[in-house]
Specification:
- The radius of gyration is 34 Å and the shape is elongated.
- The two termini are 38 Å apart.
- Among the domains are: 75 residues, Alpha-Beta Plaits, CATH 3.30.70.100; 64 residues, Calcium-transporting ATPase, cytoplasmic transduction domain A; 136 residues, HAD superfamily/HAD-like (Rossmann fold, 3-Layer(aba) Sandwich), CATH 3.40.50.1000; 115 residues, Calcium-transporting ATPase, cytoplasmic domain N.
- It contains 26 helices and 27 strands.
- The protein has a 7-stranded mixed beta sheet with strand order 15-27-26-25-16-23-24, sandwiched between helices.
- It is α+β, with helices and mostly antiparallel strands.
């Protein structure tokens, strides 16, 4: 549960059982909505309800309301138990459904073959078909009958009502025809036609419809369930990333403990090939870790003492000792899982419309079926032809596809987004990504690396040489704790990996200026540049670069030997990201709290025209308001506390996964791998997802618009209607599953795939 202090509402998740179509979803939402102050969003694909309610209404009342609607409800179990319970329940349910489908198929296929192939009809064939059809009409269709009766008790009609009525009507008419209508004559032969025909004085039997309807619906729902389970593959793969046990090292002794017993601050061992048990910081060892399953980062990342590692990452190299910094629900993996789960519980605007239509769909279909029966009987048509049209209307109508159009696409898209390192908070975020035209970018930590790095090292011509000067400067700066000093030491160690930095003596810090010390008998000073560049260096440096970075002079025995430029360097992916956004029709705007010169330098390098420097959090929020007043759909990308207000105010807030919890909490989208190049992928995925939803809804609506009138005028056989109804839902789910294989396009094109 979570609390929204502004609205004083509590959010509770419920697991709802027994739902089979969009009409069920609408009914549960309406029943919960009748409670004072309660709103609910129910997802057919996940079987979950997210309920916002006042604190005085407890979970027991919510469960009772769902049960009064004719469905089952329960609070989700704790994650570990829930995972095991879901697996056991799904496997048992799948086994029962498979057994029912197999038995139904064995009994139904002979009936279908004999009814459809007149040449195979032998003496008394109809009585054999009747004996085989009876268990199918009763036991095979039993789940439909049970749910239909349950709905009747609560004055509700669902897809199961339509199927049950169709089976009962077909079987009862066939029984009447066999026993009282002359169809039981031993020599009776019955032709099969796609379009129902008159009886010529002998009542026709519709046992093929009585067995075909439950068979095709069971096949359709079985395939649909298999396909829908694929849309939840992302959550299952995330669950598999979580470690079950961990080797904890205490006082030099290792012991294997369940992951639940690991506490923050404890040191654990990660051997080559093992997954990192939880978020932490490396204390000993160095290796490369594979983050592809967690962040979407394709290249292994080198880590060593002091490096942060993420739970679920795979250790590709040496032995690591890691100190746990977050456990349980506080880990990045748990946050990712939570975000994906919450995103899949939401609804897009189009689906809310579809649910409203589905809420009245079944009663309308029942009315149309009765109207068709009355019309044909009133027009003097053969009673069985009238009944056939009525049954066909009941069977062909399909609100299932309406209910699955959005949630299956959303589940597939959010799962695929998580694999690519893009987490969306829900369908509203996808819709926001689809329509945005302006993005406000933070500089530090978003477009740039966020930490001080040596951007350029320029040695004086005819001096000591780059390597010699760098070795001396690195040695002196080893005694400094200043960020500039640490950047120089790190650069020296990378540039000279085989040469150890020498010792320094007489080290001293010069407040506001730099450091000095004796290295190998030489006086080495590393000082901030004060004034003009020395003549030997002035011509070697572009003015823009000098303005964008902090210049530091290296003097050896009083002689200037080099100039080191230190700054926050642009991420390599930022160039491609900005270019790809522009190709998608999204205009980039840079807003940063940094100085004007570094901001302009970064903007110039990336080709960003509009720059706002020295922005306070309030200034960023004002900029967002100004852009919105100009009619723009604005997204904000940031990673710090100072970005939180603008993130919350924007039409779409996008946080870097490497940023603060405050920024991530205020955002609608999180780029897990900390690379804004993923934003272009997110925009394309959003456009593809909403296009898929539109296709699904067009099919779901269009199918019913075409098939229901055909059934009413007697041009659709009930058995074919059952097959068409099942195919409708399967096609919608299959279309959504295509999103699981979606791949980002290259930067070279601006097309949407």
């Amino acid at each position: 549960m979570g609390t929204d202090s502004a609205a004083v509402l509590v959010t509770t998740d419920l697991t709802v059982g027994g739902m089979t179509c969009a009409a069920c979803v609408r009914r549960v939402e309406k029943k919960l909505g009748k409670l004072d102050g309660v709103t609910a969003t129910v997802n057919l694909a996940t079987g979950r309800a997210r309920v916002s309610h006042p604190p005085e209404i407890g979970p027991a009342e919510l469960v009772e309301a769902v049960e009064k609607a004719g469905y089952t409800a329960a609070l989700p179990a704790p994650p570990k138990k829930q995972q095991r319970a879901d697996g056991d329940e799904e496997s048992e349910q799948a086994r029962q459904e498979r057994e029912r489908l197999l038995v139904t198929a064995v009994l139904a296929v002979p009936v279908l073959v004999l009814s459809m192939v007149p040449g195979l009809q032998f003496r008394d064939w109809q009585w054999l078909c009747f004996a085989l059809a009876a268990p199918v009409a009763v036991w095979g269709a039993w789940p439909f009958h049970v749910r239909a009766v349950r709905g009747l008790r609560y004055s509700a009609a669902t897809m199961d009502t339509l199927v049950s009525l169709g089976v009962v009507a077909s079987f009862c008419w066939s029984a009447y025809a066999l026993f009282l209508g002359g169809a039981g004559d031993p020599g009776m032969r019955m032709p099969f036609t796609l379009v129902p025909s008159a009886s010529d004085g002998v009542a026709h039997i519709y046992l093929e419809a009585a067995v075909g309807v439950p068979l095709f619906v069971l096949v359709g729902r079985f395939l649909e369930a298999r396909a829908r389970s694929g849309t939840g593959a992302a959550l299952r793969s995330l669950a598999r990333l979580a470690a079950k046990e961990v080797s904890v090292r205490e006082d030099g002794v290792e012991r294997l403990v369940p992951i639940e017993e690991l506490g923050a601050g404890q040191v654990f061992v990660v051997r080559p090939g093992e997954r990192v048990a939880t978020d932490g910081q490396v204390t000993e060892g160095s290796s490369a870790v594979d983050l592809s399953l967690v962040t979407g980062e394709s290249e292994p990342v080198e880590v060593g003492p002091g490096s942060a590692v993420v739970g679920g990452a795979v250790n590709s190299g040496g032995l690591l000792l890691v100190r746990a910094t977050a456990v349980g629900a506080d880990t990045q993996l748990a946050r990712i899982t939570r975000l994906v789960t919450e995103a899949q519980a939401g609804k897009a605007k189009a689906q809310r419309l579809a649910d409203s239509v589905a809420g009245v769909f079944v009663p309308v279909v029942l009315a149309l079926a009765v109207a068709a029966l009355g019309f044909w009987l009133g027009a003097g048509a053969d009673p069985q032809a009238a009944l056939t049209a009525c049954v066909a209307v009941l069977v062909v109508a399909c609100p299932c596809a309406l209910g699955l159009a959005t949630p299956t696409a959303l589940m597939a898209a959010t799962g695929r987004g998580a694999q690519l390192g893009v987490l969306v908070s829900g369908p509203q975020a996808l819709e926001g990504l689809r329509h945005l035209d302006t993005v406000v970018l933070d500089k530090t930590g978003t477009l740039t690396s966020g930490h001080m790095t040596v951007a350029q090292f320029t040695a004086v011509p005819d001096g000591l040489g780059k390597d010699a000067v760098l070795r001396l400067a690195g040695a002196v700066e080893r005694g400094s704790e200043h960020p500039l000093g640490r950047a120089i030491v790190a650069y020296a160690q990378r540039a000279l990996p085989e040469r150890a930095l020498p010792d320094v003596s007489e080290f001293g810090a010069l407040p506001g200026k730099g450091v000095r010390g004796c290295v190998e008998g030489r006086l080495v000073e590393v000082l901030a540049l004060d004034g003009e560049l020395p003549d030997a260096l002035a011509n070697a440096l572009p003015a823009a670069e000098a303005a964008a970075h902090t210049p530091v002079l290296v003097c050896v025995d009083g002689v200037t030997e080099a100039l080191i430029e230190i700054g926050d360097v642009v991420r390599p992916g930022s160039y491609r990201a900005v270019d790809r956004l522009r190709r998608l029709g999204v205009r980039p705007v840079l807003a940063t709290g940094d100085r004007e010169s570094p901001a302009q330098a970064v903007a110039s390098a990336l080709g960003i025209d509009e720059v706002h420097a020295r922005c306070s959090p309030e200034d960023k929020a004002d900029l967002v308001r100004e852009l919105q007043e100009r009619g723009h759909r604005v997204a904000v990308i940031g990673d710090g506390v100072n970005d939180a207000a603008a993130l919350a105010l924007a039409d779409l807030g996008i946080a870097m996964g490497t940023g603060t919890d405050v920024a991530i909490g205020a955002a609608d989208v999180t780029l897990v791998r900390g690379d804004i190049e993923a934003l272009a992928d997110a925009v394309r995925l959003a456009r593809r997802t909403l296009a898929t939803i539109r296709v699904n809804l067009v099919w779901a609506f269009g199918y019913n618009v075409v098939t229901v009138p055909l059934a009413m005028v007697g041009l659709l056989n009930p058995m074919l209607a059952a097959a068409a109804m099942s195919v409708s839902s399967v096609l919608v789910v299959a279309n959504s599953l295509r999103l699981r294989a979606w791949r980002p396009t290259g930067a070279a094109t601006g097309t949407v795939r």
